Amino acid sequence: MAINNKYDVVIVGAGPAGSVCANFLGREGYNVLLVDKAKFPRDKTCGDACSGKSISVLRELGLLPEIKKVAHGVNNGVIFSSPKGTILEIRTENQDGFVCRREILDNILFKAAKKYVDTLEEFTVTDLIKDGNQVIGIVGIDKNGKEQRIYANIVVGADGAMSVIAQKLGLFEVDPAHHCIAVRGYYDGVTGMKDMIELHFTKTAIPGYFWIFPYEDGTANVGLGMLTKDIKAKKINLKELMEKEIKENPMFKERFKNARLISEIKGWNLPLGSKIRKQIAGDGWILIGDAASLIDPFSGEGMGNAMLSGKLAFRTISRALRLKLYSRKVLGEYEEEIKKELKNELEMSYLLQRLGKIEFLLNLVIDKAAKNPEIRKELTQMIVSEEAKKNFSSPLFYLKLLFS
Question: Does residue 220 contact residue 213 with C-beta atoms inside 8 Å?
């Protein structure tokens, strides 16, 4: 495909955020280029669980039927365990949740966008082109080692946690108190799995958690995540801690007795939405997904907010293109939309993250919910409803726990 040197929009990064944004813009007939440093299909280190906002956006794009045709695990709820070992099962049937390897899911999103926009794979962005403060394009190296300059009215940074676009804008920051590191590997032969994802708040993993997410073929995505601040303070090696959990924790020792690691154990960075980048839109540019630091501070899930941010960016960009105005004054409306949609939820998730560091509180909540159907029902609502999460911060909720 011949690539032009001028577009309405250039989107850097073809993961969920970038591909969703490109798909929406392309369907409206805008001239869009979607670039990525990888060649698809490609792997992306992740927990691979997909629910909530992701499902909503996929449904809007008409992609859910296609995803249901490919290999994926069905997620009908969450299994929690407390530091003391109490197990709580919360079923959430009919929520369309699933676990799908990113190599498969991202490729579906990329191919869907490719129907409407130009794409350029194996292209590494190295810099931005500016006219004063106005971003007017990108500079990059193609697969043949040739430098190319591509111009656009708007550049979208969808290039992940280590965003080159954010770096070139002087906005890249790693705050250990608002940043997480996680590791994951694929295992075969883990026993005792159900059609539910598992989150285990073990004594050694707090203030993070250990997870087991099952696939359709009996394999599992197994991992552990923790705040960077705590990793540094306690000098933790996450890979070693995860392997220790598997080999020594009585809850997992037997389940992994005959299990086999079938991949590398890989790590990745998660910039948390408890501290969104200080600016995510400006003169000729917008940041979306992990590049904007939108990952849920409690669950570590980033795909839902990434896809939503791609959709919200599309709305603002579409208006800017119609008006032919590309200043921060116009593109800054995207920042307001992000705040409107995500600010309260991210603040609540940050509160849950901090509460999750308190061992006795985790024991209390999970113990009570395991015994009390009413509390279990409230927790179920908190999982499936963003609005219901607010109950978790209410003193009435904890009084109910204490006296139930």
Answer: yes
Report d(CA 20, CA 352) in Å as an integer: 29
Report CA Rg, the chain: 21
3-state secondary structure of 289: helix
Tokens at 226, concatenated: 């923790």
Side-chain half-sphere of 353: how many Cα atoms within 13 Å?
A: 25
Count of Cβ atoms closer than 10 Å to residue 313 Cβ: 33
Residues contacting 374, CB < 8 A, separation 6+: 404
20-74 tens-digit pLDDT: 999 999 999 999 999 999 999 999 999 999 988 999 999 999 999 998 899 899 8
Cα separations (Å) of 223 from 261, 263, 301, 303?
12, 12, 13, 17
How does 74-86 read in b/e, with b if 16+ C-beta sit within 10 Å? ebbbbbbbbbeeb
Q: What one-letter code names the amino acid at 191?
A: T
Q: Is 239 exposed, middle or buried (0-12, 13-18, 19+ CB in 10 A)?
A: middle
CA distances from 175 to 226, 232, 271 (A): 14, 12, 8
Q: What is the pTM of this model?
A: 0.93
CA distance 222 to 357: 21
Q: Which residue has the tokens 């601040």?
A: 229
Rounded Cα–Cα distance for residues 366 and 349 (Å): 17
Residue stretches of the chain with pLDDT short of 70: 1-2, 94, 379-404
pLDDT at 366: 87
Q: What is the pLDDT of residues 151-175, one digit of tens each?
A: 999 999 999 999 999 999 999 999 9
> In whole angstroms, what is the distance from residue 16 CA to residue 50 CA?
11
H or E stretch covering 41: none
